[in-house]
Amino acid sequence: MYLTIKETAEYLSVPEAAVKSLIQQKKIRALFDGEQYLIYKEQFATHLKQVEKYKELVDEYLSEPIPESIDVKDED
């Protein structure tokens, strides 16, 4: 399935200008049909999976309780 720049920006939750910039930098593959750029949606599948996995790892880390401190003595 192919998306326009506007649809891609909504799908990725980024501004349209960012999508255009990434196309110009060749970080997003796109086809130009004479009128507009068309972007293949599946090229983002791996990226989105990695983002979800990273979010899970961060949530797991943040939910881990803080260990009690080892016998810390005040030397005053």
Automatic annotation (TrEMBL):
Residues 2-50 form the Helix-turn-helix domain. It holds the Pfam family HTH_17. It comes from the Bacteria. GO terms for molecular function: DNA binding. This is Helix-turn-helix domain-containing protein.
